[in-house]
Amino acid sequence: MVLHAAPLLLDGGLGTYLEAQGHDISGPLWSARVLRENPALIESAHADFFAAGAQVATTASYQVTFDVLGEEAETLLRRSVAVARDAAGGAVDKHGALEEYLVAASIGPYGAGPGEGTDYDGAYGLSREELYRWHARRVAVLADTDADFLLAETIPNVDEAAVLLELLSAQPKPFALSITGAIAADPVKLMRVIDLVNQAPRLGAVGVNCVSAPHALGVVKTLRAATDKRLLACPNSGELWDHGAHEWRPAPAGAVSLAEAATDLVAAGASLLGGCCRVGPTEIRQLRTSILRATSDSFGQ
């Protein structure tokens, strides 16, 4: 990954953005359903995030798994990268070559596949060996694409983090790890992951996603005090997902937005910033404005 004076800006929540546009992401495939049926819509969504100021397109591979899709999974994994690469190329054509447009191949957690809602609590009941077998082929396929780096994101399970760091360290591309849920909320589990991170010399960045902006700030501060890795933060909108009702609840009154938290996240050491669920191009544009203001103010001091 290339070092930047300002943080590298990732995109927002691809699946929830597609949903907000009226596309059906219900069922076990989530955004991969759109990737499967109409990949041009995925490319268009990536283009919207680039137009808003994002420099990284995160692929629609998060929920593409071999146990759900069989051999078709490899086709869709490769398609997800190709579509994002096309969008990045279009962004260069539109905005010029002064910007850097990258593709991050998304690797979602076991819970996002057959885990039946365990993608935030990480209560899988699987051994490391089982998790290794489950993740290995997907990592291998994505490593064999022209993605710029691999991003294991929304990881809620310490054993899963260990397995992914092992698999990612054995492939040639740069890679990053982003935790969430049960790890981010548990100081003991977080320190266990930090120990793993500090034993992974090729890991390019570590961070947190799909938690509120204030929670992400706390995790970034903890990480900064315990590791010299580059730090990543991709908070959600602050709204709350009601798993039972399958609907979003409003953010608590007075909740700090991602854009409002940007200055503190940069000051805390986050050098890769973006959004997660319910963060669309509008919020990414606001985040970019906040980042530019924060970094220009720091240069002026």
UniProtKB/TrEMBL annotation:
<dbReference type="GO" id="GO:0009086">
    <property type="term" value="P:methionine biosynthetic process"/>
</dbReference>
<dbReference type="InterPro" id="IPR051486">
    <property type="entry name" value="Hcy_S-methyltransferase"/>
</dbReference>
<dbReference type="GO" id="GO:0008898">
    <property type="term" value="F:S-adenosylmethionine-homocysteine S-methyltransferase activity"/>
</dbReference>
<dbReference type="InterPro" id="IPR036589">
    <property type="entry name" value="HCY_dom_sf"/>
</dbReference>
<protein>
    <submittedName>
        <fullName>Homocysteine S-methyltransferase</fullName>
        <ecNumber>2.1.1.10</ecNumber>
    </submittedName>
</protein>
<keyword id="KW-0479">Metal-binding</keyword>
<keyword id="KW-0489">Methyltransferase</keyword>
<dbReference type="InterPro" id="IPR003726">
    <property type="entry name" value="HCY_dom"/>
</dbReference>
<dbReference type="Pfam" id="PF02574">
    <property type="entry name" value="S-methyl_trans"/>
</dbReference>
<feature type="binding site">
    <location>
        <position position="276"/>
    </location>
    <ligand>
        <name>Zn(2+)</name>
    </ligand>
</feature>
<dbReference type="GO" id="GO:0008270">
    <property type="term" value="F:zinc ion binding"/>
</dbReference>
<feature type="binding site">
    <location>
        <position position="277"/>
    </location>
    <ligand>
        <name>Zn(2+)</name>
    </ligand>
</feature>
<feature type="domain" description="Hcy-binding">
    <location>
        <begin position="1"/>
        <end position="291"/>
    </location>
</feature>
<feature type="binding site">
    <location>
        <position position="210"/>
    </location>
    <ligand>
        <name>Zn(2+)</name>
    </ligand>
</feature>
<keyword id="KW-0862">Zinc</keyword>
<dbReference type="GO" id="GO:0033528">
    <property type="term" value="P:S-methylmethionine cycle"/>
</dbReference>
<keyword id="KW-0808">Transferase</keyword>
<dbReference type="GO" id="GO:0032259">
    <property type="term" value="P:methylation"/>
</dbReference>
<dbReference type="InterPro" id="IPR017226">
    <property type="entry name" value="BHMT-like"/>
</dbReference>
